[in-house]
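User: I'm new to structure prediction. If I give you an amino acid sequence, what do you actually give back? Let's try with this one:
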Amino acid sequence: MPIANLSKLSQIHSYALRNHLMRFAAMHKNQPSQYQKNPVDLSFKDKSLEHEFRSEHAINTLSQIRTALIIAAILYALFSILDFLVMQTGHIWALLVRFLIAIPIFLLCCALTYKAYFRTRLQLLVSATIYVAGMGLAWIAIFYQDSQNGLYLTGTLLPIFWAFLYSGLRFIQAVKVSLALIVSYDILFYLADNLSQAIFVSFNFFLITSTIIGILGGYTIERYYRRDFVNRRIIDAERLKNEQLLLNILPKNIVSELKQHPGTIAKDYEQITVLFADLVEFSKLSLNHSAHQVVTILNEIFSLFDRLTDEYGLEKIKTIGDAYMVTNNVLDGSESSAKSVAEFAVAMRDALQQYNQEKNYNIQIRIGIHTGPAVAGVIGIKKFIYDVWGNTVNIASRMESTCPPNQIQLSEYTYQILKDEFDFENCGEIKLKGICDMHAYLLSNKKAEVSGL
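Assistant: Good question. You get back a string of structure tokens that encode the predicted 3D arrangement of the chain. For your 453 residues, that looks like this:
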């Protein structure tokens, strides 16, 4: 009994996927237009792709944002210890800013991330919270006396680094928050505090330098975020192509089983329905046409049949020259599966007649069908195909070879399954080469009362 070693198939599948992934470097050099980015803010030029990235980014950074807000609240509280150690006056005001304004806002923002409305507005929510944190530190700095001002002016740099490195903000949003803080700091300290010109200039020097460092870090982080996003899309697209290739070779249920349990797959089926179809005297047509025309004709006809297999939920097994082999879904051994194959046979005969009318050809077809037990699997490691073996296949083939042109011939067993739904003509006993004589029937069409006519 032939069996298929699908472990080899798994190796071929993995090899194909590795080959796809090795093309990434070249693909990144010449990415499709949909992956092109604005070099300044890194946004994708394709608006739908940018929207997809932002949605995915929000989902991926949600837990990070919540963690960042809780850590920010804890750090804000811990710095109150420094207030008591360094500040000579203004402790109460500093505590009010920390514990009645900033920390409650951090915790409220964290709680709001659990609401669907705010999860779609995370960037705005986090930006506002960072701005409040920065302005809170600026107000605390004002409460310090002359010699301590410098220490808390330095502390106002922390929200800028936080915005770029861990807050979950996208790069361009972090830039906006940082610039808003710089402008607000300068206005606040200019109006509310008597800083010397030297301290004011030094403070702005550190603000701008910190922002530049943050921009460099944030730009690099988001560039990798977006590169990873593109890579995953390319991988998914290549994996889909790879799976489509497998689905063109193997039935869907076999592909699924291969993914879950790689290895040998060869199964016995108690009942499947096999159909063979062959174009009558197609070789004569080939004599009057070029090789390219012959292949084109075959491709057009078999493409019609392929679409019909999808329509009727059948499995195309293979083509050999101008012969076409189909079975029902191997998992479905019910009588309804034989009905689908019979309906498909009528449809493919009608489709060929329509094709002849359109192309002014006179191509005829023979169709043979039999139902019975069989074995299905994959053989070989090169140009592998899913195949079906057994006496059922042989009988279906003989039903086709002894069938009159433009007719559908069925065995006795299949006839017994379908006799109440289709009209038949009794052919009597026929001789089948290599097989004992067998009763056969010609299927004409569905019964009028069954088809609803």
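You can read the tokens as a compact description of the fold. Here is one thing that stands out. The chain has a mean pLDDT of 83.
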